[in-house]
């Protein structure tokens, strides 16, 4: 529809100050599993909770293609695992409010801390670095 938005998902933050102890003063936690959309033209944002995204996730790969963002791999502190999942997040920027849908594909790869790069004009990509569980 000629509109664009920035998508933010995952990451880690420091444990809230009220929950820290002397032993955990520098501990991190997964950010809540929410998707944030930012409209840079008008300066507005929105937060979305999707049932498919039930755990926080960090160190995943993200790839945007047309109206979809793909999240590959990553790590969850809550479950201490790197599940081989692939999420396909579809973002439709409709008039009024965006429409988000998410599909989980258990055919991803269990990788974290890598980067992904497009290798040419076709939709071919290469994953560089990272590690598998």
From TrEMBL:
One of its GO terms (cellular component) is DNA recombinase complex. SUPFAM superfamilies: Galactose oxidase, central domain. It holds the Pfam family RAG2. GO terms for molecular function: sequence-specific DNA binding. It comes from the Eukaryota. One of its GO terms (biological process) is V(D)J recombination. InterPro entries: Gal_Oxase/kelch_b-propeller, RAG2. This is Recombination activating protein 2. It comes from Centropyge venusta x Centropyge multifasciata.
């Amino acid at each position: 529809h000629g509109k664009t938005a920035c998508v933010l998902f995952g990451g880690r933050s420091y444990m809230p100050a009220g929950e820290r102890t002397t032993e955990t003063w520098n501990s991190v936690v997964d950010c809540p599993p929410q998707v944030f959309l930012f409209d840079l033209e008008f300066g507005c944002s929105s937060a979305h909770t999707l049932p498919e995204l039930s755990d926080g996730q960090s160190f995943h790969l993200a790839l945007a293609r047309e109206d979809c963002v793909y999240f590959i791999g990553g790590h969850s502190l809550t479950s201490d695992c790197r599940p081989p999942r692939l999420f396909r997040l579809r973002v439709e920027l409709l008039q009024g409010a965006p429409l988000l849908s998410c599909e989980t594909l258990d055919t991803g790869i269990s990788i974290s801390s890598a980067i992904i790069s497009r290798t040419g004009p076709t939709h071919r990509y290469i994953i560089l670095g990272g590690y598998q569980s």
